[in-house]
Every structure is written in structure tokens, then in C-alpha cells.
Predict the 3D structure of the following.
Amino acid sequence: MLKGFFHVPKAVNEPVKSYAPNSPEKKAVLEAYKKMWNETIDVPNYIGSEEIRTGNTRNMSAPHDHKHVVGTYHLAEKKHVEQAIASALEAKDAWANLAWEQRAAIFLKAAELIAGPYRARINAATMIAQSKTIYQAEIDASCELIDFFRFNVEFMTQIYNDQPKSDSSVWNRLEYRPLEGFVYAVTPFNFTAIAANLPASAAMMGNVVVWKPSDSQVFSAKIIIDIFKEAGVPDGVINVVFGDAQMVSDTVYASPDFAGIHFTGSTHVFKDIFKHIGNNIHTYKTYPRIVGETGGKDFIVAHPTANVKQVVTGISRGAFEFQGQKCSAASRAYIPQSMWAEAKELLIKDVKSFKMGSPEDFGNFITAVIHEGSFDKLASFIDQAKKDTDAEIIVGGNYDKSKGFFIEPTVIVTTNPKYATMETELFGPVMTIYVYEDSKWAETLKLVDETSPYALTGAIFSGDRYAIAEATEALKNAAGNFYINDKPTGAVVGMQPFGGARASGTNDKAGSPLNLLRWVSPRTIKETFVTAEDYRYPFLGE
């Protein structure tokens, strides 16, 4: 594991394709979309070398056309989860003992499969399964996932090359062992890249994994599984089970060999995970690693010196791309009174210009939210805002689930800085704005910091460097990813390591070596060349 033994290709960020009219990539992804739309796939559980079909199935449908079934997947029973754990443990020794460059080669191959023959398929699957526009699918399912695999290999080599000092009498070295047991990966619906990276990052460091994808992302998860298999991930290294989340998790946490969880999902669920693991702590052979990225109530704050067009564009993109379903999506904004009249006019114009519908139509900027539960929650907050005297909907406010789960992009303006939609994570295309007095910049920064229990992302816009410095200091604990004169979304692997603290997670920074370090248990080895043969030290005298 010493530097110089192998030359690992330098990681570079995958370029985003344009999908412009008449481009070959547009033609390829539309062909893949239509083919996958008209097929009905059957997705089993993947345990060791087996594909297990239980016969207890659920349908998969596109959020933008929920009556159209694109496939079914099989629900695991408790015995299948136990089988997945056993399969992982059986594969553990061979995988952990495989030379690191062999593991690296698998994931570098996976990156190239996505960049080439799988690109149209994984993008199309993400468009269908998660109702992402082609641009949102491209930057997620292709570019970010490729970047995760390439950069994680580079980060892995950096970690292995980080060795302690030695001298002529002793050779000191660190061995970066995988965890003793198996890792449980629980992944969300909203990012195909996250769904793949959570099990893959742990596996790359030599761990074996039981992976539970989101029920709302199984369709595109199937493409990830196909890529893993073609890239050469051995049987049993990443086992995939679908089904009741509570049952799967309870079964995992009951195992003495449970060694860690890699999670992205809701704050409430993650807190329950902590509690459950704590209650079971005497069961485990080792203290489990708990790594999670959870919710956010992400902000945009404009200083009076900010460029109003830049602020409005930051809101339009940051709040409404992918229907506000990014963990990093802006959902509350603070606009100075002096800017508000112009900002309001420009924002209403932007939102009214959005086209909404199927992602198959590349002219649509907005598509559907993920499922009926999300739709109903968002609709209830919009309806309440229509009734409340301290809130006003200035644009949007309509919704329709007759064909797809469509929520119109909605902007609420409130006179109450602690209004419900300023504090509550909604995970949808709803932005709430509070207009503050220009003279109360410092007070507003304090308000931003104290309003939400979350601390994932946030952005400030300003043309005044003193104001930028003041905001950067005042909001240092309010966001793990802090943006200056940009929207609070779009972190790039290797450039903006991603994660937040407070109620937003453990801030272990996916897209950096920090995350990979959570999946190793280092062993220090000291080798002495000339060993002492007498206990007496010189200070003892004759």
C-alpha cells in the first residue's frame, strides 16, 4: 500500500452532456426512455449468487404517470435478510484480503460503463423512476456517480499512502482494515448517485454490504445492480434486499456482526436508528459506525448590495429544480425590503415561465413529486397558507394528481419569520420568503441561524465583502455546505465535499476522503529492527 507501487489514473470530473436538439445523446436517451417505458421488468432480491423472487410483489410506476406500471419488485422476508447477512459474512474474508488495486479496478470499470454503454439507460431509468428532467438525471445518475467512483479510488489511495513516521530503528505503518462485520446501506429515492455510492464506498474499502434501496427508486437501482455485476463486484459483497424498512432494519440491528450504517433519509428515521443501535449496543462485536445525511431547511439570504437577478436565479434554480426534492434545495429566503419589489416581479415572471409535465419532453423544467404521500403533504401546507393571515401565495399554489403527482411551483411570502413553512422541511417545490428591513442585516443573520434545527446547505448573496465575511462567521454552524453568490445546490464530488451537522446528519462529507475513513479500522504496526535484550536504562546507573 505504499506510494509508487501503482499509478492510479488522476480523477477528473465527468463533463455534463448538453442534450441539445439533434444531439446524439438526446436521441440515445429518448430511445432508451421509450424502450424502458414500454417494457415491464421484474426485479428480484440479489443475495450472494442468487436472484430471489418471493412472489410478494409491488408495482413500480413513474411519478408523472402513476397509472403506468413499468415493473414489479419482490419483497424480502426476514429469512431473506438473514440470508443476505450470512452471504455478506461468507464473502467477507476473500473480499477484505483482495488487493486494494483489484477493488479499485472494479469501480473504475463501473465508472467507464456509466460514462459509455450505460449512460443513456441509467439516465432514462432515473427520468422514469424519479421524474427527473434529462439535465437533472445527467448531473446525478451519470456525472456524479462517475465522479464518486473515480474520486473514491483516488481518495482511497491517498488514505493508504498516509503513513506514520519511521526511523532507522523502527518501521511504523498503518494498515487500513475494513470494519469487522458488515455494513448496512440505506439509500434515498432522490439521487441515483447516492443510492450507488452508499454501498459502493463502504465496499471499496474492503467491507461487505447489505443494501436496502428506497421503494421509490428500485427501477433505477436495478441499473446500478447490473453495472455492479458487469464491473465485477463478486457475489455476496453487495447484497440487495427490498421490502418493509422496519423489518429489514430490525433484522440487521439484531446481528452481532452489524458494524456500521451508511444512511441518507429523514431526520426522524435517523434518530430512531441511533436509539435502536444504542439499545442493542451490548449485542455487537464492535461499536458500529453511524454515518448519515438527513434533512435540511436550506436558506438563501440576500444582502442589500446583492445583484437582484442573481438572487432570483438562485431561488428559481435552487428551490425548484427537481421539484425541490434535493436535500440541498433552497426552501426559505430572506430578501431586503429595498430589493423586494424588483425581486418579486422577476421571481413571479420566472416561475410563470416554467413548463411542467413529463421529463420525456425536454422543454419541461418541472415534473412530478415522488409519490402520493409527498403530494398530499405539500398540498396540505399550500392549503393552510391560503388560509393564514400571515402568509400570502404570490405565485403557484395549484396541484393535480389525476395523472401524475404535480405540485405547481409555489412561492409563499410571510410576515412571520417563524412561519411553519420557514421551519418545516417540506421536500417539494415550495419556497417561503421573509422580507426584512435593510438595517436589520445582523439581526436577520441571527434569525437564519436560529430558525431551523437543520444545518445542511445555505447561500448568501452580497456585493459587500465585509457583509460576506460577517455572514460567513455568523452562519458557520448553520450549514455544512455554504455558498457565496450561488444557489445552495449542486455540490460536485472532489470540489465541494457534501454534508451537514445539527439535525442534518453526521457531516462525514461524501465526495471526500473523510467519508471513506469511516469505513476502515486502522491497525498500527510497529516493527523494531534491533530489539532490546536488557531491561536496564542508563538512568539506573551501574
Summary: The first helix runs from residue 24 to 38.
